[in-house]
Amino acid sequence: MTAYPAALAAHFARDVTTVSHCWRLTRRDGTVWGFTDHDRRLAVDGLTCEPETGFSASEARDSLGLAVDTVDVEGALSSQRISDEDIAAGLYDGAKVETLLVNWRQPTDFAVIRTATIGKITRSDERFVAELESLVTALDQPNGHYVTRSCNAELGDARCGFLLDQPGFTVAGTVTTVGTSDTFGVASLEAYEGGWFSAGTLTWTSGARAGRSERVVAHRREGSMTSLVLLPSVGPAIAPGDAFSIAAGCDKSFTTCKAKFANALNFRGFPHLPGNDSAYSYVTDGGVFDGGPVVP
User: Fold this and answer.
1) Is the pTM of this model over 0.70?
2) What is the pLDDT of residue 66?
3) Which of 141, 192, 241, 273 has its CA at 20 to 30 Å from residue 152's CA atom?
4) CB-based burial of residue 241 (10 Å sphere; 0-12 exposed, 13-18 middle, 19+ buried)?
């Protein structure tokens, strides 16, 4: 149950109340924005909440127990802060949203009535609908790791332990030519064989996409030309001269971990795990049953 400040609780006892909703949105990159369903700006808790987004909320419900509660927040893509490109790029995925109940005549009287994270976002007709999931949703997520032959760590993270910030594994480059929206020629990668940066991460350091990180689908070498293919996404166009930083890619196999990164001791998979063909096969004459790995 929400604990309301005394001043706000006293305001509720009146015959006529002047309350509205505000939303404090905190993206995973630390950006904090405020919005309100009121018709003018409100300064709440040191944050200016903008009205021109046209935010409106559906009915909210709090359930007893561990059920996941959801509420939809709808708004027009009219604010310069919220763009279709940023939503498509996933900048709002997992963002924290606090719903505040505010006395708009006295904005210092407010209460945080709900804290949630953004789940699914749908877009249509220049509008978006964001589904806010209660914090209980974290308890509804699978925990632990699957037993697979491939590695389930992200290259360079704490579980992987490999230092990407070293010569040969993180390189600066520049766009020279642009083919399609996600394919372009680059300079400064001529010393690397094709595929070295496939499945790697590219971070833009200049240009219209500066600050964004994208997954590299393919790193190709065709004669003296070097090109990169990114995972398709919605965003500003790539232009010649745009600079980026790119990290080597990993296909999650034990062979690559050992040969390319010399990091076999930190491999987070089970490369010698036999498949169903071995587990359910019959014993035959001439077979080797010395306890050694079935998969080399």
Assistant:
1) no
2) 42
3) 192
4) exposed
